[in-house]
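Quick illustration, no need to memorize.
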Amino acid sequence: MRIKICGMSEQTLIDEAAALGVEMCGFVFHAPSPRNVTAHEVAALDTHGMKRTGVFVRQSAEEIRNIVREAGLDLIQLHGGQSAEFAARFPAEKVIRVLWPGQLASTAELQRAIDAFAGTCGLYLLDAGMGSGRQLDWPSLRALRFPHPWFLSGGLGPDDVERALSACSPDGLDFNSRLETSPGKKNGELMERAVAAVRAQERARRNRDMDGQEGDER
């Protein structure tokens, strides 16, 4: 279970996230957002080996390429409804394709969208709205088939982890607004609690798997 914390901007909190074992660090390049950062600011941040992810909404492909170079990004999160043709301008393994289940009429339509972007991304992220704090209907996601790993986002906080992971089976969780004390201001204690909650669920799952194997052997 990989963890991504999005909307980062402060070195001290990035240091803490890395120390907690967070795998991915997200930077929002979208001026209206309270989490907006510049490529120059991100270039100066040390992410200690965490994958550096840029969140893009309205930029052109050339603008994205320039920001990726200047900020030293590893991944490109297309968060603005960009087309498959637009995504194909980048290496698929570097693209995170964001989809919004709440904007689609049915699970079948969401599955068609997942399939349509399969060749132009390496990872999916299902979200309820960037930094909105809203949550998805998690049980409805259980039947979906993903050709690549997928992350769950949207209103996730420390107290939601167990319920979310019981309802569906993502490959990772993407935290943002629920780890903040005010818009754009991440909180170290909330980050620590969220990571601890994820790791606790991982241990519980491993224990269940071991119990199941022992039962089969008996």
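The mean pLDDT is 93.
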